[in-house]
Amino acid sequence: MPLVSRKGILAIAAVIDVAINAQGRPVSGKALAARHKLPPRHLEPVLQALVRDGILKGIRGPHGGYELAREHKKITAEDILRAASSADDDEEPQTSLPELVSDVVNPALAEAERSFSLALGRISIEDLVKRAEATK
Fold first, then answer.
1. Which residue in 32, 64, 69, 76 has the most C-beta neighbors within 10 A?
2. Residues of the chain with pLDDT under 50
3. Amino acid 91: pLDDT
4. CA pair distance 88, 6, nearest whole angstrom
């Protein structure tokens, strides 16, 4: 059971890609999508969510694209996943839940999510860029 959604993984990969490739010029959404072998329409909602949350900066115009809105070390995996979750369009509507779920299951899962979130908060884009560069 994956703990991170596909959109979340794509968002982290996109931010790492921008951190590596935006050297003095924005990275185009088209170039990002091509490097990740995706149609641009799949990546665009994720990129827009990252811009809305202040992780990426969108630059308009013929030479536009995306660049980091903050320093590498000030962007965490948790920040990115939180932003990407706002791009999720396939969430189920809330319905009333059985007491066992609302009183036992949800609080236990919420505790696990807090622990996971704390761990993600310790992973910076700076760390991930170093790992990416070490694999080259």
1. 32
2. 90-93
3. 47
4. 10
Site of tokens 């329409």: 41
Residue 136, SS3 per DSSP:
coil
Q: Is residue 115 part of a domain?
A: no
Domain that holds residue 30: 6-89+124-134
Residue 88's pLDDT is 59
Query: How far from the centroid of its chain's Cα atoms is residue 45's Cα?
Result: 11
* Helical spans, DSSP H, in the chain: 6-21, 29-35, 40-52, 77-85, 99-100, 106-121, 125-134
C-alpha span between 104 and 124 (Å, rounded): 33
Tokens 């990115």, residue? 80
The 10 Å Cβ neighbour count of residue 101 is: 12
Report whether 56 contacts 13 (CB < 8 A): no
| Angle (nearest 5°) at CA 131 between 129 and 132 | 65
What is the number of domains present in the chain? 1
